[in-house]
Amino acid sequence: MHVAMKRGFTLLELLVVVLIIGVLAAITILKFANSKDKAYVATMTSDLHNMVTMEESYNAEFKTYTTSLSAMTFVPSPAVSATVTDATMGGWTATVSHSASAVTCRVGIGSDSIAGVGDGVIQCK
Description:
Structural class: alpha+beta
Strand order of the largest sheet: 1-2-3-4
Radius of gyration: 26 Å
Shape: rod-shaped
């Protein structure tokens, strides 16, 4: 008498496959979350570069710096808030933040450059 064997996967094999898929999904989610934060930092850095250009253009025309974003016709990216502080004849400092990120970026020009970073160098923390 011949007994027919059923073909298929055992429970242990299925559990191993599910475990491997779970580990791969966890790694992918972590990488995706990290790339979103990098995108937010890139947006803030781009805004600061644009702000430097606009502020220096304003200074070339009016011989002074300004804390007013509208005066220099600067509009930050969506979800980004920007502030200019300490605008004097000798320099200025700006800070930007994104509503979906804990990182803030800043830049200083002239006498208000960020200590230890350098004139016009963007620092993100």
